[in-house]
Amino acid sequence: MDLVFHELQEELSGLNSGTVFVQIRNNIIGKFGVRHNPLAGRRGSFAAEQEGLTSGQQSSFRVMALESLKYKKRWTHGEISYEFAVRQGMVVVDATLESNYNMANLMIRYPRSSHGDASDQSFG
């Protein structure tokens, strides 16, 4: 997670809100980035961006992101999203943890014969 925040440092310094996402595959970060709130255009131009996260706010954000990993239980594939915004000079973060499971992997691990009746496999 330290590498993620190190790589995003410059980008976060220009943003005061958005979402940092981290995609996890086999318990390893495979892809990460920032989805930031859209730019507001008026009268044919975009307003100058406001100040982004300070180094102190980025450090606080990183600590909260690390703390959220304590809530990741048993899953190895998924995505963690950190929605952030600066409110009254403090960075506020909401974390969403999403687990993903691959049916092909489950079918290899648990062949049909070990699941019992075939009707349990149908969803239609």
Number of helices: 3
Measured by DSSP, the beta-strand proportion falls in 25-35%
As residue ranges, the low-confidence spans are: none
Secondary-structure class: alpha+beta
Give the mean pLDDT. 87
Distance between the termini: 41 Å
Query: Roughly how many Å is the radius of gyration?
Result: 20 Å
Helix content: 25-40%
Strand order of the largest sheet: 2-1-5-6
- Total beta strands: 6
Principal-axis shape: elongated
Q: What profile does the largest beta sheet have?
A: 4 strands, antiparallel
Order of helices and strands: HEEEEHEEH
Protein name: O-methyltransferase
Organism: Paenibacillus rhizoplanae
Task: Give a summary of the structure in a few sentences.
By secondary structure, the protein is an alpha+beta fold. The protein has 3 helices and 6 strands; from the N terminus they run αββββαββα.
Characterization of the model:
With 124 residues, this protein is α+β, with helices and mostly antiparallel strands. It contains three helices and six strands; from the N terminus they run H-E-E-E-E-H-E-E-H. The chain has helices at residues 2-12, 55-68, 103-109, and strands at 17-25, 28-36, 41-42, 45-46, 78-87, 90-99. The strands form two sheets. A four-stranded antiparallel beta sheet has the order 2-1-5-6, covered by helices on one side. It is elongated. The termini are far apart. The model has no long low-confidence stretch (mean pLDDT 87). This is O-methyltransferase. It comes from Paenibacillus rhizoplanae.
